[in-house]
Amino acid sequence: MKKLSIAERLGMVNYLNQGKTEAKPHILVNTDICDTECGHKATTRVCPANCYTLDEIGKVHFQFEDCIECGTCMYACDKGAVEWHYPDPEIGRGVKWNFG
Questions:
Q1: Are 26 and 89 in contact (CB under 8 A)?
Q2: 8-56 pLDDT per residue, tens
Q3: Residue 35 near residue 59, CB atoms below 8 Å
Q4: Which of 22, 35, 67, 71 has minimal CB crowding within 10 Å?
């Protein structure tokens, strides 16, 4: 059995009714806080979906589209920059889990 890379595994994630035109973020990130108040920028290292990245001058950028709703960023951020609202499965948003 071929061992899949993280990128390959993330490519297998399915999202319920989350087309680009109707995408609504369930996470809001104030990257100004990340850039001015946070010295460790832990979210850029712990997010398994690589939703948090650093540019060449050390500024944090965030994209919610690949989020797998693991919640890691909520615990990694100790400056209050991450505001999280779980997607509502009743209206068909969020990750479609195959095994639970």
A1: no
A2: 877 777 766 555 566 677 889 999 999 999 999 999 999 998 999 999 9
A3: yes
A4: 22
Question: Which residues, other chains included, contact 34 with Cβ-Cβ below 8 Å and sequence gap of 6+?
Answer: 41, 43, 59, 60, 79, 81
Q: What is the DSSP string of 38-79?
A: -SS-THHHH-TT--EEE-TTS-EEE--TT-----HHHHH--S
- Retrieve residue 57's tokens: 């001058």
With beta carbons less than 8 A apart as the criterion, state whether 31 and 61 touch: yes
Chain position carrying tokens 């050390």 = 58
Q: Which amino acid is at 69?
A: E
Rounded distance, CA 48 to CA 23, Å? 21
Euclidean distance between CA atoms 47 and 71, whole angstroms: 9
pTM above 0.70, yes or no: yes
